[in-house]
């Protein structure tokens, strides 16, 4: 306890120095904790999106984008393209509840003097069920409109507001893209997205896939989504899909991806990205540690005479070493706890807009790292103080 009281007494005599030294650790801990919290929040957001879609979805895609459990072979993603014959063949599988072919393209949409970019998803009525999309205003298109090739579209609320000043005003209005006019019959509910480079679902456009044949002249699809009747049917459905498509394509030309596989691959990517970001943020902790080392060296120099007197009165080398080491660790802990507190306050404000959160591992990381920095960077000046000769220290001017 005597070492702790001595450390706090020394801090109280140099409040400005103590604050500035702890500030480096505060910033470093805050950067690491916040980046970890953002990573956890992003993972939670993605998992929630997948839970909303349901666990019984199966995606049939060209190539093998999940080779090795991650997105490692994206170049093979466009080896083939599916067509209506594939959809018809797959629709014969008994345990499939819904089959949804999807054609996608980025287009420029014009409404009056306003021009916005959007990603089109041309499909059947089933896309709204499989992607859990609902209409906020107006309605969604039907399979009858798909068969009739009706020139109708459903757009996201952000896109609607950008084109027509408000989402509600978009219903019943006309837009133009790819040389054709289309009527907006519905605006979807807000889903969010767009953070960290991800897709913004509120800027998407949905339209009947047969209507899109005016510019999708090859009549192809980038993905076919199937929804099994229940979770128990997933494996049998996957097996049947592979058997059917193998009659037209080589095994390596397509992949049948289960929802959990896609989520695992995405989580592995964010895990790597988050680790890299935290490692970069940890550089500021090293800078803070160097600051502590410099300040402790200054403190040792200022207290050389005091150290000499203590040694002359019987203090051991280990006593001096522990005294300065304890002061260094406490200084680091003050910065670490302060950084953790500031991070918690920031996360509380952010949670209204994004599901970031601080877990127990982040707390232990903050306290552990700040303590380690105090020990690592404090041991050198502490050893210098302990190695001082009592006679030379007392004579020091």
The biggest sheet, with number of strands, parallel, antiparallel or mixed sense and barrel status, is:
10 strands, mixed
How many domains, as an integer? Answer: 2
Q: Could you tell me how far the N terminus lies from the C terminus, measured between alpha carbons in angstroms?
A: 31 Å
Structural class: alpha+beta
Count of DSSP helices?
A: 12
Q: What does the radius of gyration come to? A: 31 Å
Count the beta strands: 12
Secondary-structure element sequence? HHEEHEEHEHEHEEEEEHEHHHHH
Contiguous runs where pLDDT drops below 50 for at least 5 residues: 68-77, 194-198
Membrane topology: Multi-pass membrane protein
Keywords: Cell membrane, Membrane, Transmembrane, Transmembrane helix
GO molecular function: transmembrane transporter activity
Subcellular location: Cell membrane
Quick tags:
single chain; 397 residues; alpha+beta; ten-stranded mixed β-sheet; two-stranded antiparallel ribbon; 12 helices; elongated
